[in-house]
Structures are given as C-alpha cells and as structure tokens.
Design a protein that fits this description.
Elements (H helix, E strand, L loop, with lengths): L1 H12 L13 E5 L16 E2 L9 E4 L9 E4 H4 L6 E9 L8 E7 L10 E6 L10 E9 L9 E7 L7 E10 L2
Antiparallel strand pairs: 1-10, 2-3, 3-10, 4-9, 5-8, 5-10, 6-7, 6-9
Length: 179
C-alpha cells in the first residue's frame, strides 16, 4: 500500500499539459492532488475532495469525518542527495472561519524504531497565519532540522483536524530545501 501511495504522489507531481510551470530547483516534493482520484480505485482517501480547490478541481480536507488527511511520506535520503538542514513547507489553505484548530504537521521519525518519539514534530496552527476566511490563503513554515537527522529518517507532512468541528482545506502543497 505504501508503494502505491508513493507512486501516486509521484504521479501527482508530474507535469500535466499547460497547467504546470517548471519545478523550482529547491523543491523536493509537491502535489496539487489532481492526479490521485481514480488511481487508488476504491481506496481513494476520504480527505480528497472536489468541494474547494486552489488550483484544478481537487484539494484535501479534514472535518469531523476525517481527522488526518492524506499527505506526503518518504525517506529523507530519497528527497535529497545532500544532507538537509532546513525545510520549508508551503501550501494554500481555505478555512470557513477562525474557529478551526487544524494544524499542518511536519514530522521526522526513525522508521527503524516506530515506537520512538518523533525526532522532529512541527505543527503550523492554520489560524496563526490565516486571517481571511472562505478564501485561499498562502501559508508556510520553515523547519530547522537537528544534526542527528539522517538519510534513513522519514518525513511526513499532513493536515490534522485536532478535533475541531470546522473543516479545513489544503491544496498545492510543496516541500522545499532551504539553503
């Protein structure tokens, strides 16, 4: 299943006709969620939606029925040939009001020790950056990686509802290397 998800995320990053511009050199991964529907058959994640989108027709969302969105998960060594020291997670979010407590999570774990505490866990509470509601707002968070992070560690980026009753939408997610 993980291999299928990686393949689908890779397909989502492939250029589709005139819609895509060149990928910036510092971009490690990105997805606009357009290429996922149908690729997973009946296993399409519940967080994939056509309700609202920043670009194209699809975005992901969390709401009372979906606590965690689909997201990105990969080994750091597959993202970059050089050691990563700082990352920027960037996306577009749409919130109905300021009552949501949704968080864009970036975490780095040791897949050899899944029960261990994450090496990095950074959450961007969306209402900290979003002050205009019912419209798409750009958000980003820079994350400094500790020296003990290695190529064998796994990065995961996803949207977490945190129990809030309001939905939150995310589109055009990118992970960038910051020099």
């Amino acid at each position: 299943m993980k291999k299928l998800l990686y393949a689908l995320l890779a397909v989502g990053m492939v250029s589709c006709g005139e819609k895509k511009a060149e990928i910036p050199a510092n971009q490690l991964a990105g997805n606009d969620f357009e290429s996922i529907d149908g690729w997973m058959g009946d296993n399409t994640p519940a967080s994939l939606t056509k309700e609202k989108a920043h670009s194209g027709r699809y975005s992901i969302k969390v709401d009372p029925a979906v606590e965690y969105s689909m997201g990105y998960s990969n080994l750091l060594g597959k993202l970059s040939a050089s050691k990563l020291r700082k990352l920027k997670v960037h996306g577009w979010v749409n919130l109905p009001n300021g009552k949501t407590e949704a968080v864009l999570v970036t975490q780095i774990t040791d897949p050899a020790n899944p029960a261990a505490k994450p090496i990095v866990w950074e959450g961007l509470k969306l209402t900290d950056q979003v002050k205009a509601f019912n419209k798409w707002v750009e958000v980003e968070k820079e994350i400094i990686l500790p020296d003990n992070v290695t190529y064998a560690n796994k990065i995961s980026v996803y949207l977490w509802r945190t129990g809030a009753p309001e939905p939150a939408f995310l589109d055009d997610l990118t992970i960038e290397k910051v020099d």
